[in-house]
């Protein structure tokens, strides 16, 4: 599958950033980027919320629906067998993309479902489901679950609920005044009582790449499981879940050039094998009577019901596209864009870039607060210029509360973002300040 309609558009993968010419060629693969908003060419700076899709991803889903549409793992006819083969080939492609092994990738509707799958499976184990084999997964009163103050709500609320169901205590690693994780506090909080540590790889608000290795090290010292929210890292950085030594990781397809309605859970094979299921029904069983059932081994044990097959195929096309461009090159491109965005915004009087004082590497994302102007007004002003950004609390209310604000404006880049679009955001923010100050 060609990355671009022009086979010479992208040089062989290297560690260097994409050139301006390469980005312009890539943009031709994304039909939505050719549109206009309010009479302006669309400048899409909201990829942190949902990314756009290239022709190859759109075509892959359409081709499957047109030529191979059938239930997987169910039929004995030719079409069903071919659909199953494509479905499992896609699993292998996505698993390889994140460094997972065979049988370690479970399909879910999104990353939120994947996190809830872990939480509910541990809850079921704590109720005695899974038998003696699931004993290492059981939580009891006195046990502790640790997460952080910067998490997306999807990596916070499931652990609140798990603590409520099991009697465990939820503890939170605090942030310093800049928004960085306090590793000194983490070393005290993660203790012999800790059973699970859940942390985001990249903050969806601050854009900082967290020191996962240090947190994993603290968890390993006490025998705790580690859950990694990789939603903002898998699309933008080379990811190897085995090298990171995490026990679970979750990704979301629509943030990495794929369709909505598809996500995935990585789990260590030995853990998936002892975890009781979350959803139950057809396709995840071996034998059923009216009083009991036996379940398939993972990953099928966690894939009850009809699967989102065409979306899986499209996600595999998305990781093929990203691989062809080269994740190191995408990361380098976005790091340069992020620095340009950060420098431009911090130079504007009255603009506070969240996390500005954190000495950690970043992806191409910046959230900011404009003194005296609500984030929604900033976003609307930019939208009138054809610039799409995100406004609000970005599903991270505790982080915003810690930094003393209720909402922010977020601009997030991707492989198809240009320097000119970043400059347009910076100029647009200055324009918004000038406009609203005149109005005042």
TrEMBL record:
Protein's name according to its UniProt entry: Cysteine desulfurase
Locate the region Disordered. Answer: 1-20
Per UniProt, the keywords (alphabetical) are: Pyridoxal phosphate, Transferase
- Catalytic reaction annotation: (sulfur carrier)-H + L-cysteine = (sulfur carrier)-SH + L-alanine
The record's comment on protein family reads: Belongs to the class-V pyridoxal-phosphate-dependent aminotransferase family. Csd subfamily.
Per its UniProt record, what Pfam families does this chain match?
A: Aminotran_5
EC number(s): the record gives 2.8.1.7
Role this protein plays: Catalyzes the removal of elemental sulfur and selenium atoms from L-cysteine, L-cystine, L-selenocysteine, and L-selenocystine to produce L-alanine.
Q: Which cofactor does it need?
A: pyridoxal 5'-phosphate
Biological process terms in GO annotation: cysteine metabolic process
| Class of enzymatic activity (EC top level) | transferase
A single GO molecular-function term is: pyridoxal phosphate binding
Q: Known PANTHER family for this protein?
A: CYSTEINE DESULFURASE (PTHR43586), CYSTEINE DESULFURASE 1, CHLOROPLASTIC (PTHR43586:SF8)
The superkingdom listed in its UniProt entry is Bacteria
Keyword Transferase part of the UniProt annotation:
yes
Name of the coding gene: csd
Residues annotated as domain Aminotransferase class V: 44-425
NCBIfam families named among the record's database cross-references: sufS
Q: Which InterPro entries match?
A: Aminotrans_V_dom, Aminotrans_V_PyrdxlP_BS, Cys_dSase_SufS, PyrdxlP-dep_Trfase, PyrdxlP-dep_Trfase_major, PyrdxlP-dep_Trfase_small
The reply to whether Metal-binding figures as a keyword in the UniProt entry is no
């Amino acid at each position: 599958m060609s990355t671009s309609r022009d086979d010479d558009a992208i040089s062989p993968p290297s560690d260097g950033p994409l050139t301006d010419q390469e980005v312009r060629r890539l943009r031709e693969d994304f039909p939505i980027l050719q549109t206009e908003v309010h009479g302006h060419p669309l400048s899409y700076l909201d990829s942190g919320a949902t990314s756009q899709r290239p022709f190859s991803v759109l075509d892959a889903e359409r081709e499957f629906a047109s030529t191979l549409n059938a239930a997987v793992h169910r039929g004995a006819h030719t079409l069903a067998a071919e659909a199953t083969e494509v479905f499992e080939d896609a699993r292998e492609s996505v698993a390889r993309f994140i460094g997972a092994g065979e049988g370690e990738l479970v399909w879910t509707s999104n990353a939120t479902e994947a996190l809830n799958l872990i939480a509910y499976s541990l809850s079921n184990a704590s109720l005695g489901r899974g038998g003696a084999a699931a004993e290492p997964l059981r939580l009891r009163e006195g046990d502790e679950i640790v997460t952080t103050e910067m998490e997306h709500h999807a990596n916070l609320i499931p652990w609140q609920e798990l603590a409520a169901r099991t009697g465990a205590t939820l503890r939170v690693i605090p942030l310093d005044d800049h928004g960085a994780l306090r590793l000194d506090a983490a070393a005290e909080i993660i203790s012999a009582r800790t059973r699970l540590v859940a942390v985001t790889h990249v903050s969806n608000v601050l854009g900082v790449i967290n020191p996962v290795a240090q947190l994993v090290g603290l968890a390993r010292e006490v025998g705790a499981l580690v859950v990694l929210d990789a939603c903002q890292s898998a699309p933008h950085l080379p990811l190897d879940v085995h090298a990171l030594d995490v026990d679970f990781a979750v990704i979301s397809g629509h943030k990495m050039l794929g369709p909505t309605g598809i996500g995935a859970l990585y789990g260590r094979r030995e853990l998936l094998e002892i975890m009781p299921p979350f959803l139950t029904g057809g396709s995840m069983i071996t034998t059923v009577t009216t009083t009991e059932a036996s379940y398939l081994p993972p990953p099928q044990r966690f894939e009850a019901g009809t699967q989102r097959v065409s979306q899986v195929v499209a996600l595999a096309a998305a990781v093929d596209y990203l691989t062809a461009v080269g994740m190191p090159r995408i990361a380098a491109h976005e790091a340069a864009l992020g620095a340009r965005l950060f420098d431009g915004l911090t130079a504007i009087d009255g603009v506070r870039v969240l996390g500005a004082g954190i000495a950690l590497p970043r992806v191409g994302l910046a959230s900011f607060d404009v003194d005296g102007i609500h984030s929604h007004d900033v976003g609307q002003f930019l939208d009138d210029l054809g610039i799409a950004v995100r406004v609000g609390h970005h599903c991270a209310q505790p982080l915003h509360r810690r930094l003393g604000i209720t909402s922010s404006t977020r601009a997030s880049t991707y492989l198809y973002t240009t320097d000119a679009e970043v400059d347009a955001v910076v100029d647009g923010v200055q324009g918004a300040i000038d406009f609203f100050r005149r109005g005042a």
